[in-house]
Amino acid sequence: MDALSAESLLTELRAVDAERARRAADPELAARVQALKAYQQRRFAATYADLLANPRYEAATRFFLHELYGPGDYRQRDAQFARVVPALTRLFPQEVVDTVAKLARLHALSERLDTRMGEHLMSAGITAAEYAIAWRACDGPDARRLQVELTMAVGESLDKLTRRPLLRQSLRLMRGPAQMAGLGALQSFLETGFDTFRAMRGAAEFLSTVRHREDTLASALFRGDASVLGQLP
Question: pTM of the prediction?
Answer without folding.
Answer: 0.86
